[in-house]
Amino acid sequence: MKFRPVVLVLLLLAGFYYVTTRGAAAGKLLPWLHGIGARATTGPDADIPTHLTTFKGPLGDFELNEAAAAPAFDAEEQQNIGVYKKALPSVVNITSTAVAFDFFNRPVPQQGQGSGFLLDKEGHILTNNHVIDNAERVEVTLYDKKKYKATVVGVDRQHDLALLKISAPNLQPATLSDSTGLLVGQRVYAIGNPFGLSGTMTRGIISAIRSIGVQSGSPIEDAIQTDAAVNPGNSGGPLLNSRGEVIGITTLIASNGSDQSAGIGFAIPINTAKSVLDDFAKYGRVRRPSLDVVTLPIGPDIADQIGLAADYGILIERVLPGGAAEKAGLHGGTQRMYDGNTPVMLGGDLIVAVDGNTIQSPQDLTAALNTHRAGDTISVTVYRGQRKLNVRVTLGDAKDAPYTGVSQ
Questions:
Q1: Residues 136 and 223 occupy one common structural domain
Q2: How confident is the model at residue 100 (pLDDT cuts 50, 70, 90)?
Q3: For residues 408 and 400, what is the distance between their CA atoms, to the nearest angstrom?
């Protein structure tokens, strides 16, 4: 009888030892005690509840300190997620198929990929012209992976824009913003299909607003420069503001020959696209404003040789018959000379400004005209000999110009 209390005490001690060592370590017994131990081993933020999980196996025991609940998103993460959820349903993947010929002159299909975004529930899609240029078949994949054949409604090669259309139900169009008043430092997001990886979002800031030259020779005015990662396949996709609204169309990268992001990408401002879309709607094509002249850029050396009144500007070699310049009374050249083997016409008006803005190159003139539309009237400042004149010119429509060579 005297041994019974002793045995009881020993059993209780043994049970307590077993529970506190085996049970707490396994996390299966006495969860309240286990929780106390876990909180004592939390990281630097003691307010975040955690628990210990042990895995046993032939390689030994692994004890992991796990969060007891999913962490809350901070304000910046919530904004990123909100932009993505809002914009993703309107972003599409575009696959274009063209036919090339191999060494034996056999047709070989070639595919290219790009991005675009929905403009309305009727299935109109905006993208870059270079994404679908020369394509014989264009296919659009929506964010839900459904594929549709697309038709090309219109293209504007000068601004590298193309309008497509698909027939599909329940489309979710993007929300377009205003690209005036954009500031360097604004946060922006690019969503597209870089390297064919659909639904990819990158983030950055507007790093500059500038005019950039493109292969067509026509600059993109007020192009949005960004450090958001832009890679092949992003072309034609939307550049978004922090509210998930489209402010530009991603169009090219400054890659320094590496054919991938180097931290400098460019987007066409959405207001430029709106003007193009307005022309598509009204006329079924883009009405590009034209002065209807053939020009020669002038520098100090040439100006000094031929005795011009200014050492900058562009010299009118020829005014096109029936064009805007001829109707306004601008003069072309009358004296044929040769620059090497190239004939040039001298003696015409020297354009030095448009609407008060200095013109030093054909690109400057293109930029000035692109701020107007066909039918607008502009003021052109010229030197005719040594006399300075301001001439009012009503711009023509480039498509209707009777001359198909290089002209403005």
A1: no
A2: low
A3: 13
With 0-12 / 13-18 / 19 or more C-beta atoms within 10 angstroms meaning exposed / middle / buried, residue 228 is buried
Domain count, the chain: 4
Question: Both tokens of residue 381?
Answer: 């400042």
Task: Sort residue 30 into left (φ over 0), alpha (ψ -120 to 50) or beta.
Answer: left
pLDDT of residue 245: 97
Domain that includes residue 25, residue range: 3-67
Residues with a known catalytic role? 130, 160, 235
User: What is the per-residue pLDDT for 196?
Assistant: 86
Cα–Cα distances (Å) from 126 to 70, 146, 342, in that order, read: 39, 18, 41
pLDDT at position 65 over 70:
yes
| Weakest mean pLDDT among 30-44, 235-249, 302-316 | 30-44
**Residue that is last in its domain, among 245, 267, 283:** 283
Cα–Cα dist 94/178, whole Å? 25
What is the pLDDT, as a whole number, of residue 257?
Answer: 56
Classify residue 73: in a domain, yes or no: no
Rounded to whole angstroms, what are the CA distances from 298 to 49, 60, 302? 74, 81, 6
Angstrom distances, CA of residue 245 to CA of 311, 325, 341: 45, 41, 53
CATH number at residue 324: 2.30.42.10
Kindly tell me the burial class for residue 69, based on how many C-beta atoms sit within 10 Å of its own C-beta (0-12, 13-18, 19 or more).
exposed
Which CATH number covers residue 86?
2.40.10.10
Q: Is the pLDDT of residue 264 over 70?
A: yes
Contact of 155 with 177, CB cutoff 8 Å: no
Query: Quick check: 260 pLDDT over 60?
Result: no
* E strands, 272-384, in order: 289-290, 293-297, 314-319, 335-339, 342-346, 350-354, 357-358, 377-384
Question: 112 with 140, same domain?
Answer: yes
In a domain, 408, yes or no: no
pTM of this structure: 0.68
> b/e map of 106-117 (b: 16 or more CB within 10 Å)?
eeeeeebbbbbb
The DSSP string of 335-353 is EEEEETTEEEEESS-EEEE
Indicate the residue among 234, 256, 283 that finishes a domain: 283
Which range has the worst mean pLDDT, 30-34, 122-126, 368-372?
30-34
Nearest residue to 67 via CA among 38, 40, 32, 25: 38
Mean pLDDT of 317-329: 91
Residues 300 and 393 in one domain: yes
Q: How confident is the model at residue 279 (pLDDT cuts 50, 70, 90)?
A: confident
